[in-house]
């Protein structure tokens, strides 16, 4: 039996295509709202409570939120997704928009889905990296 | 080139150019993804099955990024995907053809021909005068790089064996004329506008010739024979009328395979009498 199984190639490397390209971060990202004050800070706090649908990590620590601005009580959230084909896109964007709109002092919220700069693993915060390691990812 | 910032300020010519460019991009990705999914649970190995399914998901994501931009012009996603007349789809015939049954060589060669073209057209969109297009290019390129690598890896692997080589040759004979339709115009005047307005900075002719200058030497290096000659001299290539198939896709003429595929992909939507697409919900409503 065993003689039919070819010897493994001594030079083989495990799955050449598992190449987690690190990518470049953007200077002002990840944004976490640490300098925000007042209602803007409350919006960041509320968004911190939303988890990625697949992993136990806040979407803020994952680096998906690029910015929160408040204009006359109207919140504008700039957000990206890790992956263009994300099947949870509508679920997540609606949750973010509703969460921002529900913050006391916010009259309405608008979500702008942005794709530039594109998300990379460099946009995960240190806290986020810890959460992902805890979950079992090597990052 | 002045940026075309606000969709409300676009004149008729600008709108038509933008709509045409976006439909070319989105429909190619969408229809190719539909075809790729036919391989799910049928690819030759678990790994190749996962890889192609993943590429299909990427292409659907990219189609959606382009359909999103079409919403600036007043379209809605369900109209574009499920309610549009099949003759209004602008994809190249390459992506609508069914795979030869069980022929993995068809899938990987098609992927190579397509992804090599997509790399060039994305480059030509990097500085698009429509900012939403330019902003999306980087994200798509970062995902597409894997597709081309995957396709070439498989093409080379198949070319290395006798049966695989023959299958690739058969697929090339069949697919090559249809791959050329990737560079065909929807309407020649509108295509001129696309470039004049800076929406894309290379003409279809330039993209087609550049593509030929890449894929022809590559395929020949694998001892595959091109079914038609496109070489003018050592490093000049061109697409001529007689090389093209009867149906071109871009101009709204499609093969019968498209009618069947369109019928299939819209079947459930029509059957259930839907007027919008369903979504993944956090909690069922």
TrEMBL record, chain A:
It comes from Natronococcus amylolyticus DSM 10524. It comes from the Archaea. Pfam families: FeS_assembly_P. NCBIfam families: paad_haloarch. InterPro entries: Fe-S_Maturation_MIP18, FSCA_dom_sf, MIP18-like. Gene3D superfamilies: Fe-S cluster assembly (FSCA). Residues 1-10 have a biased composition (Acidic residues). Residues 1-35 are annotated as: Disordered. Residues 40-110 form the MIP18 family-like domain. This is MIP18 family-like domain-containing protein.
TrEMBL record, chain B:
One of its GO terms (cellular component) is cytosol. It holds the Pfam family PaaA_PaaC. The lineage of its organism: Archaea, Methanobacteriati, Methanobacteriota, Stenosarchaea group, Halobacteria. This is Phenylacetate-CoA oxygenase subunit PaaI. It comes from the Archaea. Gene3D superfamilies: 1.20.1260.10. InterPro entries: Aromatic_CoA_ox/epox (IPR052703), Ferritin-like (IPR012347), Ferritin-like_SF (IPR009078), PaaA_PaaC (IPR007814), PaaC (IPR011882). One of its GO terms (biological process) is phenylacetate catabolic process.
């Amino acid at each position: 039996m065993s003689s039919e199984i070819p010897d493994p190639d001594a030079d083989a490397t495990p799955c050449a295509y598992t190449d987690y390209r690190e990518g470049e971060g953007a200077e002002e990202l990840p944004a976490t709202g640490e300098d925000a004050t007042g209602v803007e800070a409350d919006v960041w706090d509320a968004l911190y409570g939303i988890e990625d649908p697949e992993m136990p990590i806040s979407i803020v620590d994952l680096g998906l939120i690029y910015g929160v601005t408040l204009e006359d009580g109207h919140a504008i959230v700039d957000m990206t997704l890790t992956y263009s084909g994300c099947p949870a896109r509508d679920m997540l964007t609606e949750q973010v928009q509703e969460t921002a709109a529900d913050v006391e002092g916010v009259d309405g919220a608008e979500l702008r889905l942005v794709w530039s700069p594109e998300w990379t693993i460099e946009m995960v915060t240190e806290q986020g990296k810890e959460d992902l390691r805890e979950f079992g990812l090597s990052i | 080139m002045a940026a075309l910032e606000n969709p409300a300020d676009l004149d008729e010519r600008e709108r038509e150019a933008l709509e045409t460019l976006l439909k070319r991009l989105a429909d190619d990705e969408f229809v190719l993804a539909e075809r790729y999914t036919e391989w799910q649970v049928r690819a030759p190995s678990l790994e190749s099955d996962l890889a192609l399914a993943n590429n299909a998901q990427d292409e659907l994501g990219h189609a959606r990024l382009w359909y999103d931009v079409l919403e600036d012009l007043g379209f809605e996603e369900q109209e574009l995907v499920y309610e549009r007349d099949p003759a209004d789809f602008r994809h190249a015939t390459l992506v609508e053809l069914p795979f030869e049954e069980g022929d993995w060589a068809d899938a990987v060669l098609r992927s190579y021909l397509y992804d090599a073209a997509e790399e060039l057209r994305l480059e030509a969109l990097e500085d698009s005068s429509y900012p939403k297009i330019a902003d999306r290019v980087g994200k798509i390129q970062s995902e597409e790089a894997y597709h081309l690598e995957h396709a070439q890896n498989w093409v080379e692997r198949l070319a290395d064996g006798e049966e695989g080589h023959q299958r690739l040759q058969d697929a090339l004979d069949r697919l090559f004329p249809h791959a050329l339709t990737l560079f065909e115009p929807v309407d020649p005047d509108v295509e001129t506008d696309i470039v004049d307005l800076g929406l894309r900075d290379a003409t279809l002719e330039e993209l087609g010739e550049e593509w030929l200058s890449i894929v022809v030497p590559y395929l020949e290096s694998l001892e595959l024979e091109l079914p038609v000659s496109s070489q003018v001299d050592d490093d000049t290539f061109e697409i001529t009328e007689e090389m093209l198939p009867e149906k071109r896709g871009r101009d709204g003429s499609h093969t019968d395979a498209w009618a069947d595929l369109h019928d299939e992909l819209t079947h459930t939507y029509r059957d259930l009498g839907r007027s919008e697409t369903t979504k993944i919900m956090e909690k069922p409503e």
